[in-house]
């Protein structure tokens, strides 16, 4: 099973502000949907409550990571660790599990990720949540597609896909 991170970040790596996204880029929402549809998506409890607004994203298996042992998120599976979330996806026969944020969960998952789908937003914005730095020595660019601003998109943006050069650290035993 491939572990992928999917995120949109500005040039100063901002991914969020006050619990939400400080931009509106409908093409990126569409790209996110197309890419993650029918897969397991793994998110932190804050992203679930603030970005997904306490609703599972349809036609995907939603897994929410929380430290709380008695939490229940309707329509979602719950995990207390990233390993548990990945194990659920693996046990369900997933081929590519998507970690969809936010900052805390991207940081947790980055060492185990094979792929990063990063929408680079060509702007510098203020924010309070950031995408972690990743080294260009460890990752190479698989694809890149730039879109210029238009009437629906205030900023230019580039869909990039990165692949790790070496195998990532293992968090779960794929034989289990
Ligand atoms: N631009 C993008 O692509 C994108 C995507 C997603 C989110 N975002 C942004 O990211 C921001 C939210 O990120 P965030 O870092 O504040 O929150 P988050 O990563 O979404 O969720 C944090 C929560 O995850 C749980 N958690 C964290 N580490 C854990 C661990 N080791 N074990 C078990 N549970 C753990 C905790 O839940 P409990 O408190 O319940 O224990 C914690 O409060 C928002 O601004 C959002 O808009 C941006």
3D architecture notes:
The chain has 176 residues and is α/β, with parallel strands linked by helices. It has one domain: Dihydrofolate Reductase, subunit A (3-Layer(aba) Sandwich). It is 20% helix and 31% strand. It has 4 helices and 10 strands. The strands form 2 sheets. Strands 5-4-3-6-1-7-10-9 form an 8-stranded mixed beta sheet, sandwiched between helices. It has a two-stranded antiparallel ribbon with strand order 2-8. The chain is globular and about 45 Å long. The structure holds NADP nicotinamide-adenine-dinucleotide phosphate. NADP nicotinamide-adenine-dinucleotide phosphate binds at residues 7-8, 15-16, 19-21, 43-47, 50-51, 65-68, 80-81, 100-105, 108, 129.
Quick synopsis:
With 176 residues, the chain is of the alpha/beta class. Strands 5-4-3-6-1-7-10-9 form an eight-stranded mixed β-sheet, with helices on both faces.
Assign the CATH class.
Alpha Beta
Arithmetic mean pLDDT: 95
CATH architecture assignment: 3-Layer(aba) Sandwich
The low-confidence runs, each spanning 5 or more residues with pLDDT under 50, are: none
Q: What class do helices, strands and sheet pairing give? A: alpha/beta
CATH domain topology = Dihydrofolate Reductase, subunit A
Order of helices and strands: EEHEHEEHEHEEEE
Number of domains: 1
State the CATH superfamily name: Dihydrofolate Reductase, subunit A
Fraction of helical residues: 10-25%
Q: How do the strands line up in the largest sheet?
A: 5-4-3-6-1-7-10-9
Strand content: 25-35%
Bound molecules: NADP nicotinamide-adenine-dinucleotide phosphate
| Number of DSSP E strands | 10
- Shape assignment: globular
Total number of helices: 4
Please give the radius of gyration in angstroms: 16 Å
Major pleated sheet: 8 strands, mixed
Head-to-tail CA distance between termini: 13 Å
């Amino acid at each position: 099973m491939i572990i992928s991170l999917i995120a949109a970040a500005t040039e100063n790596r901002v991914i969020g502000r006050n619990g939400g996204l400080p931009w509106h880029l409908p093409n990126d929402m569409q790209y996110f949907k197309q890419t993650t549809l029918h897969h397991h998506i793994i998110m932190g409890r804050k992203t679930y409550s603030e970005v997904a607004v306490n609703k599972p994203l349809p036609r995907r298996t939603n897994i929410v990571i929380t430290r709380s042992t008695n939490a229940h998120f309707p329509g979602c599976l719950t995990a207390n660790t990233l390993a548990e979330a990945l194990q659920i996806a693996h046990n369900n026969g997933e081929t590519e599990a998507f970690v969809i944020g936010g900052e805390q969960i991207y940081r947790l998952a980055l060492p185990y990720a094979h792929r990063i789908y990063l929408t680079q937003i060509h702007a510098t914005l203020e924010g309070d949540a950031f995408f972690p730095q990743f080294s260009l020595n460890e990752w190479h660019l698989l694809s890149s597609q730039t879109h210029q601003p238009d009437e629906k998109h205030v900023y230019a943006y580039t869909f990039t896909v990165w692949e790790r050069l070496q195998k990532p650290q293992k968090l779960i035993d794929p034989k289990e």
